[in-house]
Fold each of these.
Amino acid sequence: DHSLNEAIIEEHTRLQPVREAADILLDTTRLNLHELRRLIRLKAADDSTEMQIHLQSFGFKFGLPQDAALVFDARFLPNPYWDTQLRSLTGKDPAVQQFLSSSDHARKLQNKITDLLQSWIPSFQDEGRAYLTIAIGCTGGQHRSVYLVEVISDQLKQLGYDSVVQHRELEE
């Protein structure tokens, strides 16, 4: 005897004590089975004493990631979407990478984010966190955010940190 909206509200109310008792919350809205398995391993694995670093690109037009501790906005960078030769590509493609790496603003942003992470990751580790999710967004989650996640992941590896990369809006 409830509308769908009323049923959802009731379910949310009934599950609130479970949510409050949870140590880890996972937003599974846009995950396929493989991504869900990887995310569970990332966030719930007991086999590593090191904090897991999760870098995620996303599109603001599809909403913010629910579980990100740090969110960065790349929408002010030059947008490859407006170049018809780059529009169908992603931030993983060399042409888009070249386009963005030639931008002073993109280089400055990636270096500032990396510097910030290098400074603050040890504090997150000292806090005893099992994982840290860092999200970088642009409008559609195809070009700028993907590029930055890839480059920053490489920079973190050079600094001795391993990271798991996810591009939420890309079909992988």
Note: The two ends are 41 Å apart (CA to CA).
Amino acid sequence: MTLAAVDTGLIVDVNEPMLEMLGAERDRVVGHTIREITHPDDWDRNHVLLERAATGTIADYALEKRYRRDDGSVVWAQTSVSVFEDNGEMLAIAHVQDITEQRRAAEQLRWAATHDELTRLPNRSQFTAELTERLVSSPVGTTAVLF
């Protein structure tokens, strides 16, 4: 769990499991911004949703996003955020669940479904899908298949 000020993104409090997930000490997280621990490629989408929640357009939101760990690695998380008012200040509380292993397993299954395990080359299904995509997206007469 993470508690942050909506207007500044400043992290007010964080629980121990979140610190463990980030591989960070409390002073490295509390007093810093959400943006500092969010992967740069995921910040814009996160920021837009947070602003919409702060203005009341949406009550809460959930998204999968990456967090940057202190060691430089990345952890994927399912993040559910609710915005509320406390003594005139808008705060966001985020419930964060590490889904790195689930994403890794899903990626391995996707790869296994489209590649030959022995040769590690794309299988017939992958070849057919890629050929179809190229034939559809290229001008007539510009693609040839040799075998």
Note: The longest strand covers residues 74-86.
